[in-house]
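User: Hello! My lab partner asked me to get a predicted holo structure for this protein. The small molecule is 2-acetamido-2-deoxy-beta-D-glucopyranose, SMILES included with the sequence. Please write out the structure tokens.
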Amino acid sequence: MVAQRGSPWGLRCLFLCLAVQFALEAAAEYFKPFNVSYDHRALIIDGKRRMLVSAGIHYPRATPEMWPDLIAKSKEGGVDVIQTYAFWSGHEPVRGQYNFEGRYDIVKFANLVGASGLYLHLRIGPYVCAEWNFGGFPVWLRDIPGIEFRTNNALFKEEMQRFVKKMVDLMQEEELLSWQGGPIIMLQIENEYGNIEGQFGQKGKEYIKWAAEMALGLGAGVPWVMCKQVDAPGSIIDACNGYYCDGYKPNSYNKPTMWTEDWDGWYASWGGRLPHRPVEDLAFAVARFYQRGGSFQNYYMYFGGTNFGRTSGGPFYITSYDYDAPIDEYGLLSEPKWGHLKDLHAAIKLCEPALVAADSPNYIKLGPKQEAHVYRMNSHTEGLNITSYGSQISCSAFLANIDEHKAASVTFLGQKYNLPPWSVSILPDCRNVVYNTAKVGAQTSIKTVEFDLPLYSGISSQQQFITKNDDLFITKSWMTVKEPVGVWSENNFTVQGILEHLNVTKDQSDYLWHITRIFVSEDDISFWEKNNISAAVSIDSMRDVLRVFVNGQLTGSVIGHWVKVEQPVKFLKGYNDLVLLTQTVGLQNYGAFLEKDGAGFRGQIKLTGFKNGDIDFSKLLWTYQVGLKGEFLKIYTIEENEKASWAELSPDDDPSTFIWYKTYFDSPAGTDPVALDLGSMGKGQAWVNGHHIGRYWTLVAPEDGCPEICDYRGAYDSDKCSFNCGKPTQTLYHVPRSWLQSSSNLLVILEETGGNPFDISIKLRSAGVLCAQVSESHYPPVQKWFNPDSVDEKITVNDLTPEMHLQCQDGFTISSIEFASYGTPQGSCQKFSMGNCHATNSSSIVSKSCLGKNSCSVEISNISFGGDPCRGVVKTLAVEARCRSSSDVGLSQF
Ligand SMILES: *[C@@H]1O[C@H](CO)[C@@H](O)[C@H](O)[C@H]1NC(C)=O
Ligand SMILES: *[C@@H]1O[C@H](CO)[C@@H](O)[C@H](O)[C@H]1NC(C)=O
Ligand SMILES: *[C@@H]1O[C@H](CO)[C@@H](O)[C@H](O)[C@H]1NC(C)=O
Ligand SMILES: *[C@@H]1O[C@H](CO)[C@@H](O)[C@H](O)[C@H]1NC(C)=O
Ligand SMILES: *[C@@H]1O[C@H](CO)[C@@H](O)[C@H](O)[C@H]1NC(C)=O
Ligand SMILES: *[C@@H]1O[C@H](CO)[C@@H](O)[C@H](O)[C@H]1NC(C)=O
Ligand SMILES: *[C@@H]1O[C@H](CO)[C@@H](O)[C@H](O)[C@H]1NC(C)=O
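Assistant: Hello! Below are the structure tokens for the protein in complex with 2-acetamido-2-deoxy-beta-D-glucopyranose.
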């Protein structure tokens, strides 16, 4: 949807807007004002120690229209806190001109978090890394003469302080701090500075001391953290980031153990594999953290989202920031990750009274690689109001088996327990296991992408093209216009020598044209022929993409991060136009000295192979042109797209380089997330109704390096369970629903290397297939234990039978049971088969409970399945179900 001044949200979200508006006008106070402090054990919120689970969600990686649902799904998943960075480059795109609108409306985001009853951890940085362009720094920062980032440099400190103060003041003005009744319980200054501090020597130490004092001096009235900063000064809490943080100890006994980034997945690069972290290992890491004294853990990311526009960092990070997070890029639950963690959070909550009551756990060695940590109320905790938790539980325990291979049988307080390898069992009452990290009871969901939609050209061509039968799939059509190679505007200039790329572009565009003329004599030609050689562009070092054009033709491309270039070029006799196009694909976001990193070329840059010696490029006159013509004319917007002379594209036309395409499409009906499939294209950028959906690139991941089986056991690293080998890293690109109107959506594509736009399609993403597998030996559902509404109703273990839960996404119901077997079923989701033991009526019994419902539960017991199908055998129920939209999915009405 095109933003219109005055009503930026349009009618689509009328209900939502009203709800949000109401929340905003009711001026904060989501909580009774409360203070936040801490001791060595935990954050103390309103006088109470708390065990907190936090969900990382970066507001600009979703649309404001998505925020309420993401926050609601986080809350339903059992988290207490939402964590986000503040994105300086988005908030101050031009020095002194602030932007808090749209995806950068951080006040609205914070209000939504507060309105949902969750807390907020705001990490101001302002360096944030985050796989975000330039680590979140505005690119103008590097143009301040004499500035050095993240060190004791007066110019940098002044800019940093101004932004940090701006953010703290804004939060205070909007009454978003805890003591004002707002959701903010904690802030962060700097980010993982410990990783690079050594490179700055004494000035680094001085800087971090200054940063701490500056932050504390702003009077925010809530604690501050520094992550990966073992020397965090004074009252700033040093926190851990990593795949595991259970061994972490802060630098003072007075500070609690916090885990600001639990890497539950990883990011991906163009041409790379996709990472996957199995939830059994993730749950193990989290349980171990609380087991060994941790008190605050944040999933980085709980929802990763999308790097819209040119916000992706890098170089070479893809547009999707899905991160293999519990909520996927499109805002759908990623199962079983979300569900298994929800069960874990409920189990930890059951233990919270004992965890906060104890000053430290009692350690019991149970075996060579098995251990227990027991939390009991003790004499040191008299100052805290334990009874206010309304629970009788006074002893909770975690039993861990850190053996990577073998299960173990252990005896704990006189009872026997079986512990699967690499797992933790949680015993909220020190007797009954309610959860084991390796036993996944949560359903699996398989995301389906379906539904190709037709694209058509011409804004009022509905009648012409759209019919209600299948013919509509062949009515796709496209308009096209060529992007000029080289100079296209008065804004070109000519100087001697090669300029640094970012110094010229200021990152207003990925592209910088360098244009010169090369004279080739008769002698050169015969010299090349005689020696069977050609001239070559030779560059010591280049990033990220170089394209070489000779006499208007693209003759070579080089891709890499500071790589050597030897690009042969074929010249004609006389004057030749030589055009070098340098491109960035996300600015560096990690490391020291970012201000010096730059882009384009470094070192010696020359043309080799000439009879009279090399031609030094630094001695030539070069004409420079920033960006692409279509980009600067904004021909991707509804208002400006007619500025280009579009012509009809024929399917017989050869693929062309540096070319624009446009078409129109209607929105698919319903609420399923929408994706653009650009798998048929090369490299470029795409816009829908003027919204920049990001860079695309169809680079393919290596054929090898994806394991056949992902074994959750043992320490995780980002390569361990990667998948998608031999396929393009990304082909689907999220188009947020709120950017669409019901019909005639303008899609504009800039293609650099050639592709087939006729194969571009619109797809819908939904969790169409559900699977679950729960055995008799599984624990009763934690949710039943965790029943804060009925504290008085004492639930005993014997009342509880294991259950299977199936749930479709909102607005969907279970439409069929594809497989159901109570007995000894084999295989995994979409590959289930019956075993020797099978209750004949399995399918009809599951169907009876589930068909036509959004969610259902089935008890795993002999009685439910009409008797015992095989005595003396532990039985399992495996189910595969299909979800369907309650209102049939289809095209919008024409
Ligand atoms: C928070 O602490 C401040 C300073 O100690 C105190 O004045 C204020 O009353 C406290 N507020 C609450 C809600 O406890
Ligand atoms: C402890 O908390 C409970 C419930 O919130 C409250 O009723 C009780 O007065 C508190 N006790 C003390 C000593 O503050
Ligand atoms: C490039 O700049 C020169 C000098 O300003 C100008 O004369 C020329 O018209 C420009 N080229 C284009 C294509 O606008
Ligand atoms: C970029 O510009 C700055 C200031 O104009 C200058 O100091 C610096 O040397 C330039 N960088 C390069 C690599 O030319
Ligand atoms: C010229 O060089 C190319 C490769 O550089 C080679 O393939 C070709 O055979 C050579 N031709 C002659 C005539 O030597
Ligand atoms: C099913 O029945 C068998 C006896 O046939 C019994 O051993 C087992 O405990 C029963 N299981 C459940 C879950 O009721
Ligand atoms: C299975 O279902 C049929 C028909 O509903 C019923 O007659 C039969 O008793 C059932 N069998 C068992 C073992 O429950």
